[in-house]
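Recap from last week: sequence in, structure out.
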Amino acid sequence: MANKIALFAAAVAVVNVAVFYLAPAESFSLSLSDFQLQDLLLFQFAHFSVFHLFENLVGLMLTAALAIELDVSMKKFMFAYFLGAFVSVPLLLMFPGAAIAGNSTAIFGALAISLDRAKGMISYKITYPMVTLFILGVSIATSFEAGQLIAVRSDIFHIAGFAAGAGATLSIKELHI
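Predicted structure tokens:
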């Protein structure tokens, strides 16, 4: 029988690809300047480029595989995933001209809860800072290459998604999920 997390990841991937090819990212990206209610749900499935879509699909599949290997429950995975997705919404207030799209913040949320499950093998005191430094390192390298600080702004959203997933581990323990 197929694992529920694998089915969830596959379904999200199919929706991501379908939305990418059926509608431009601007149709469903979330921004304060062009706010539409349906974008609150659909922004996580919109992507700005093929590369953006590809890196989110790879990240989703790798995170799902890690969660399956570490025997993360579907409830915990989905809780962290959706918390990671929606934590980026209030951050738009810090960047009024920004538009967000994609599910990378959700993926980082799911990654954090998966890494918490791995704490018997390697401490979250090592994995959490390593992932945060990786996010920042990629951002800085991209910024130097592009000559812009747009990547740094987007990684504030990524770190927030990761922090939401890390926070979800505490909430889950309190809520007994």
